[in-house]
Amino acid sequence: MTEALTDRSLASSVPAPRPHHASVFEENRIGFVTRLYLYASLFIVAAVVLLPLLTTALGGFKTLGDLRVHPFGLPTEWQWANYTDILTSTRYWQMLGNSFLIATLTVALTLVVAAMAAFTFAHVKFFGSGFLLNYFLIGLMFPVATAILPLFIRIRDLGLLDTYWGVVLPQVAFGLGMSILLFRRFFQNVPAELFDAAFVDGCGYLGYFWHITLPLSRPILATVGIIAFVASWNSYLLPLILLNTEGKYPWPLGIMVYQGEYSKDWQLILAFITLTILPTIIVFFAAQKHIVAGLTAGAVKG
Amino acid sequence: MSQAASLAPPLRSRRMHMQGTLPVLVLFLPPALVLFTLFVILPMGEAAWYSLYDWNGYGLPDKFIGLKNFETLWRTSAFRTALGNNFLIILVSILIQLPLALWLATMVSNRIPGAVVFRLIFFMPYVLADVAAGLIWRFVYDGDYGLFAAIASFFNVASPYVLADRSLAIYAVLAVIVWKYFGFHMMLFIAGLQNIDKSYIEAAEIDGASRWQRFRYVTLPLLAPTIRLSVFFSVVGSLQLFDMIMPLTGGGPSNSTQTMVTFLYSYGITRMKVGFGSAIGVVLFVICVTLAFGYRRIFMRHD
Questions:
Q1: What CATH number does residue B265 fall under?
Q2: How far does A241 lie from chain B, in Å, by closest CA?
Q3: Of B21, B219, B229, which has the smallest distance from its Cβ to A126's Cβ?
Q4: Among B84, B22, B67, residue whose Cα is nearest residue B238
Q5: Per-residue confidence (pLDDT) for residue B67, from 0 to 100
Q6: Could you say which DSSP state residue B110 is in?
Q7: Cβ of B203 under 8 Å from any chain A Cβ?
Q8: What are the structural domains, with CATH classification, of chain A?
Q9: Is residue B162 included in any domain, yes or no?
Q10: How many domains is chain B partitioned into structurally?
Q11: In this complex, which of B25, B104, B132 lies closest to A124 when CB atoms are compared?
C-alpha cells in the first residue's frame, strides 16, 4: 500500500520518463544519413557548451604567458600551484562554507514553513482558505527586484543587515509561493482513506501530519529542497545588497571580489572559477536524475 | 481499496473531524504568513509609497515629490536602453532559443545511444550560477587572453574587444544567455514530447504524412502548452536578469547592456536613492502585472 502510494505520487509530481510512449520516433526507423545528421548536430552543440568550461578548467593549470599563446589545448607545463594555493587558502573554504550554511538554513526553513502551510491548505477547510492561498501565489509573479530597496530597509530596521538570517529570511519568503504550490498538490494526492483511518484511530491533524504525511512526502521534500538549495547556492543579488563583511560572503560574491583583486591574472581567476563550480558539477552528475526532475518539476507544475 | 475511491477528491468526507482544526490553523499557518507578509507583500507596498518621495533611506521619508521619480526615470536614456534590452532578450529567447531548444529536444528524444549524456551536457549550464557563467564568458570574450583573441590571431586579424564595444556588447550578452538557458527549455520540451500520445503520430503516419508534416501538424500543436510555458519563463527570466550581466559588463560600456534590474542596482541601490529605486521597482511590478494578465487573456483561454 505504502509502496504503491509513493510510486504513484512520485510519478505525478515529477515528469518522469514514461516508457510506453517515451520516444516520438522509433529507433529502427532512423536511417544512416539521419543518424549522421543527428550526431553531427548534437556534437557541435555539445562542443559549444563544453568548450568554455574545459578551457576554464585547463586555463587554471597554465601560466599567464601560456594562456596568452594557446588558450586552447593542454598546458605546456601543468601549474598545480594555481589550484593548490586556492585549496589551501581559508578564503575559498570560508565562502563555500558561508554558501552552504545559508543554503542549508534556507532549505530547512522553507521545508518546515511551506509544508505546514501547504498541509493546512490541503486538508483543513476554513473560512478564507482560497483567498489566503491566492495571497501566497502572488509571490510567484514578482521578482525580488520589485521590492529590493524597501526590503533592504526592512532588514536594516530589524537589525539583520550583514547577518546570515538577513539573507535567509527573504530567500525563504520569496520561495514560499512555489513551495506551497508543490507541497499542496502532493498532499492532496494522499488518499482520503488514510486520513479517515488515522482519525478513527484517534490521530489528530498534528499527528497525521507528523506520522503519515511527512513520511510519505519524501519525493516532494526532495524536490522542494533541491529547488531551494540551488536557488540559494547560486543567489547573488540578495547577499550583494544585504551583506557587507567579506568574511560572510557566499561564493558568488566572493568570486567577484577575487576577480576584482586579480583582474588580469586570468589563470588564477580561471582556477578559482573551476574550484567554485566544481561542487555544483559533482553534485549535478551524482544526483542528476533528482536535480533535473526537481528543477523541471518546479517549472512544469508551477 | 477500489481505484475510484482513491481517486476521489480527498477533501469530501471530513465533516466529522472538524474538532482539532484550531491548533493546526494557529500553529501551521502563521509562520508562512508572517514571513511572506513581512518580506514580500509589505516591501512591495512600501515600494509604491517610497516611490513618491525623494529619500536616502535615513529617518522618515518626508520629501514628497509626487510622480517626479517616474518622470526622471523616463527621461533617463539608460532606462530606455534597459527596457529595450529586456525586450530584445525576450525576442531572442523566443526567436532563437526556443526553436533551438525544441530542435534539440526532438533529437535527444530519439532512443539513440548517448541521448541521455547529451541531455545532461545541454542542461549543465543551467545548473551553474549566472555569476560563474558570466565570468567564464568574460574570459572567452577577452581580447587579450580569451578564445576570441586566439581565433583572431589564428586568422591574423586584430583581436576584437567584444565586451568593450558599445554596439556589440549586448549581442555578446545575448549569446551567453542562450548558452546558459537553452538546456532548461529543452528539458521542458522533452517533458512535453513525452506527454504526447504516440498513437496520434502513428495515425498521421498511416495517413501518409511526411516526417515534417507529422511534426508541423501533429507534434507542434500538441506542444502548444509547453511552448507557452517556455515563453513565460523567458519573459520572467528577462525581467529579473542581473547576476549574469554584472560579471560580463556591469551594464556598460556606456550603459549599452543595462537591464531593468542592473539599472535599478546602479542608479537606485548603489547611490541609496530609495525613492528613485522604488520607482523602478514599481515599473517592474506594473510590467509583471500587465504581462500576467495579458498572458492569461491571450493564451489561457483554452486551457
A1: 1.10.3720.10
A2: 8
A3: B21
A4: B84
A5: 86
A6: S
A7: no
A8: 2-20+89-301 (1.10.3720.10), 31-78 (no CATH)
A9: yes
A10: 1
A11: B25
Query: What would the pLDDT profile of A61-77 be if each residue is shown by its tens digit?
Result: 988 888 887 777 788 88
In a domain, B64, yes or no: no
| Any domain includes B49 | no
Hey, which residues 113-142 in chain B have their CB within 8 Å of chain A? 114, 118-132, 135-137, 139-140, 142
All residues of chain A having their beta carbon less than 8 Å from the beta carbon of residue B295 are none
Domain that holds residue B220: 76-271
C-alpha distance from residue B112 to each of A7, A285, A288, B117, B143 (Å): 27, 20, 19, 11, 40
Crossing angle of the two packed helices A90-123 and A164-188, in degrees rounded to 10: 40
- What is the Cα–Cα distance from A20 to A30, expressed in whole angstroms? 19
Is B26 inside any structural domain? no
Choice between B195 and B5, residue whose per-residue pLDDT is larger: B195
Residue with cell 572567452: B140
> CB distance from B158 to chain A under 8 Å?
no
pTM: 0.85
Closest to A292 (Cβ–Cβ): which among B8, B187, B265? B187
Among A33, A146, A172, pick the best mutation site for testing chain B contact (most B Cβ within 10 A): A146
C-alpha span between A208 and A198 (Å, rounded): 7
**Confidence class for position A5, pLDDT limits 50, 70, 90:** very low
